Amino acid sequence: MSPAEHPSQHAPELRAAARHFGRRRFLTATGAAAALAFAVNLPATGAASAAELDAARITDDPFTLGVASGDPLPDSVLLWTRLAPAPYQPDGGLPAQRVTVTWELALDERFRRVVRRGRATAHPEFDHTVRVEVGHLAPAHVYYYRFRVGSWVSPAGRTRTAPARGSRTGLDFGLVSCQKYDEGYYTAYKHLAEEDVDVVFHLGDYLYEYAVNSVAGSRAYPAGTLPAVFNRETVTLEDYRLRYALYKSDPDLRAAHAAHPFVVTWDDHETENNYADDTPENSVPPEEFLLRRAAAYRAYWENMPLRRPQMPEGADLKLYRRLHWGRLAQFDVLDTRQYRSNQAYGDGWQYSGPESEDPSRTLTGDAQERWLINGWHRSDAVWNVVPQQVTFSRRYNSTTLPSKVSMDSWDGYPASRERVLAGAQAAGVENLMVLTGDVHVHYAFDIKRDFSDPGSRTVGTEIVTTSVTSGRDGSAKPSNWDTLMTANPHMKFFSGLRGYVTVSLGRELARADYKTVSHVTTQGAPLTTAASFVTEVGDQGLKPA
Prior knowledge:
Blueprint: H1 12-21, H2 30-35, H3 37-40, E1 67-73, E2 76-82, E3 99-106, E4 114-122, E5 129-134, E6 142-149, E7 152-153, E8 157-160, E9 171-176, H4 187-193, E10 199-202, H5 237-248, H6 251-259, E11 262-264, H7 286-303, E12 321-325, E13 329-333, E14 349-350, H8 366-378, E15 383-387, E16 405-406, H9 414-427, E17 432-436, E18 442-448, E19 458-464, E20 474-475, H10 481-487, E21 491-505, E22 509-517, E23 527-536, E24 539-544
Parallel strand pairs: 9-10, 10-11, 13-15, 15-17, 17-19
Antiparallel strand pairs: 1-2, 2-5, 3-4, 3-6, 6-7, 6-8, 9-21, 12-13, 14-16, 18-19, 18-21, 20-21, 21-22, 22-23, 23-24
Helix pairs in contact: 1-7, 4-6, 5-7, 8-9
């Protein structure tokens, strides 16, 4: 049963307040913030705050969901964990009481040279998640971290700070996306955990909202392995929190988080398939969807290694942000879901026309678009890199014209893409790299200044990573391989297997290695480098390595 067929699962007073305050801003209005307390629900202080739990009463391991770090800065790291002795229970196995957690940051994995330590509080209002922003650190350093509660010690994580602002130190990073739990094992993460990369960019679809049955679909667990709480679509805050617990219970995902800092952005499935701003996929009242969106955004922030500025405010969460790797790279992390115009022509693959080509249509929203282009004007980086969600380069799905294009990708918003490319040109961006997920295949694209002219100047490259599991095993040459490679001469590579990409950025060139695994519906697949490309500073365009 879809949410459209469900009676509302939200409390009547929440729905009433949502209707009163309208479509977009109802949860951030003063009165609504109080009425819809679940969506903001900050921990109270003083006598009204939750009682403190005696950590000695925690008799089972609370660190079942591992540890993580994210958004590295030259002088700071963000550390994350969640206390959940029983992660498949709605309360995680803990009472609604705050818990004091201690943490340590060391220069060595045996924690003999601890450089920082402190205390943090796991609040029940935040589902006993913990985030610690550790400052006053040395740039370009590797650190190890762990948490303690009572007699329990978390697994150790490994993280790093970014280099100093003026540095041109090289960078190696990984790209992942689309990890539907019930369509395969996280073999790609097992291999990625063993890679020597500085940071991992997750480009969306960290979880999927669809029901997961007791055998976990293609994972084919013994009957009854997973409880019934997962066998429904995520709609409420409790639903989304439980789904993150399921995903993070996977040992290979936990290993990747412990091995590398992550920089994350969402796509659609963290909330609902192909939603656009405040427009849902299904025909539900707007207040119902925005309540769902508020719940999804709150659970995302709680469970991702994000800093406090990304904390949601009602139905909104400002996820787009800028990170630097010295003077080598500027990363402008985009959000192409929260502010977009609704998909033209009912979504899907359609012919372009007046509706999709309307110059007022936007994929990023006006404020984010200005932020991106203004940031390029101020950039002094060798590489300007844009981690985002949906395919940026043109994709025809037919060798004859006119051809249909995806209304959910930048092809469905050509005026938005043109403004971005014109902005990069005006800012003098010479080495543009767009990082993309979403489509469950590997692509390598040359970004053309004018995609209608194959001879147009190449102004950048787009690296599209395949899924970790979504789409199940896949194939090296999908049925449309010949068509897409012929119809899109700027497409240099296409594979439908699962895996990830590693990218090395240097002062003279960048190298992308497309990694694949042969299968995910059973465990143990080896890792293969299916293709490698380089693009040179000042001479954009992908060439076989």
